[in-house]
Specification:
Layout lengths: L1 E6 L11 H5 L9 E7 L13 H12 L6 E7 L16 H4 L15 E6 L2 E8 L4 H18 L5 E6 L3 H8 L10 H18 L4 E5 L6 H13 L3 E3 L6 H7 L6 H7 L16 E5 L1 H5 L12 H12 L1 E6 L7 E2 L2 E2 L6 H10 L13
Parallel strand pairs: 1-2, 2-3, 3-6, 6-7, 7-8, 9-10
Antiparallel strand pairs: 4-5, 11-12
Amino acid sequence: MASYAKILGSSTPSLAPLQPEMDDLNNQDSIVGYRIWISWGAMEQTQGSYDFSLLDAALTRLKTAYNKPKHLIIGLWMYGQQGLNNQDWRVLPLYIQQNPKYGASPVAGSYGWWGVSSNGRSTGQWAPSFYNPAVMDRFIALVQALGNHFDSDPYVEGLYIQEDSAIAEAAGNSSPADPNYSDQAWLTQLERLLTASTAAFPHTSVLEANTWFVRPDATVALQEWMLSNRIAPSAQDTWGQSAINTYGTSHLADGMQVMLGTNAAGGIGDLRPKTRAMMDVESDELASPRLTSYGGPWTPLDILNALNQTYWASHAFWTRFAPGATYNGVPVPTASIWSNMAATLSKNPLIHTDYPPNYP
């Protein structure tokens, strides 16, 4: 199961918004765990002082509150979808935003990020400047602290680095773009982060949603590098097999096309026999009317067929909708309500759950 809510920095941090989701795991023996999103700002309010208490509480609940223990995937939420206000540390710690050593932003006197802005503030999607080595140094320190705290627990299943396209879009495709951004700079720092992540988590899967950079050659390079460095490929858009059969793979994320060996930018062929994908199944794929031109939203069974036939997925993280839920004002399809979805998942397991030989 995948968390619908996110844990962001707050003066009153609480696990309460996620507890109903986690409770739906009880007596669902075919659902082995929970992927949780948590931001940098929720774990490091002041430099070098880390607070993992909410993750500890979630892990304890998963291990002890249900008929069988469940595993935890720690997902690092890396960007902001809403405007960044003054003194806003929900995603990015204030010590980064207040120190010019972390690089200029579009807003005078604010540092360490880039994105859409107007009238002296961020107004839309933005992201930390992870392509700046000074910013990445601090994020790597967080990952190292996480590994020291969690890697020894066998119920911590993975560390999930959120999609790289969020940083490329905020810094490389904004108007104006960050003059210090380049795909190569971001690729270099991302490989640093992933190398540090596997070192910090030697007993735990590390996965990266390599969706796209500004240009596809960096995506190809990263996907091939990941294959040789024990990084599981992921994506945050998982389409149904019916759409893939009808429309092909050109609508999939660049990184997934590289993994399948179908990317026009090149690559070294089909990577699926050598790695395993860990896929997000998001709200849009299960419930959004905007995908009707491709036959979506798709049923969980249609997506399961894609996970087994096309993606060769070892893990899937399914968005949970409660009974009576709506999405963008439209009722969620009955098949995608959690109780119905869980029954479908239990009858149609993933089949590519063996680990590649370069895993510990």
